[in-house]
Structures are given as C-alpha cells and as structure tokens.
Amino acid sequence: MSRFAFTHAPIMRGGRIVGVFSTDTIFDYLANDISKGMITERMQIRDLIQYTKLECHANDYFRFMSVQANTTEVEEAFSHSPHPEKRTALVFLTDNGKASGTLIAMVTPWDILSFLNSP
C-alpha cells in the first residue's frame, strides 16, 4: 500500500466489497486488542476483519454509486458526505450503485483532483 501511496484497499468476497483495510484498521486493532500483542508477520487480514467492516471506520465514509455516474456526481459525493462527522474516503462504482453490487472501479479524492487538473 505504501509503495503506491494507497491509503485504503477494498476487501472482496465473491466479487463484493465486504470491508476496507486502511491504516486506521491497524490503529483500531492495537487500541482495542492490545492484549493480543503486536502485529506479526504471520497475521492475516482475517485477524483484523472486525475492524475492516464498512461501518466500523470512525472517520471514513464509503460511498457506493452506479458505474453510470458522471464525474460531476462523483466529485459532489466527496464534497457532501451524509455523515458530517466522517469524510468520504472512497467512492466505489458498482454495477448497481450499491454495496451488494459487483465492484467496477474505485475512485479516490486524488483521482478527482488529477482529473480536474488535467488539460
């Protein structure tokens, strides 16, 4: 993740998004499960899975939109979070615009900035 400067990675099961792994996932694990010890090389995502659920991210909101959405709609999704205490961290474009849909693409705020600044 750090090599490509990604801050979030979707966790997929059967072509559907079931969670998002982020740096907050590690912090939440350490803050809540310190009795389990430190992060080790043998740990797997499944060891952290309860902290990756979409609703478990304290500061991030994940928006689902149809792959048919235009760039203006996606840009507005980042500007207007339905949860004022959370920022929209990612917009997932799915075939039906819902979390239950098949993931087609993932858009970050940086993607929007790059698009807006391109000639």
From TrEMBL:
InterPro entries, per the entry: CBS_dom_sf
Protein name (Swiss-Prot/TrEMBL): CBS domain-containing protein
Organism: bioreactor metagenome
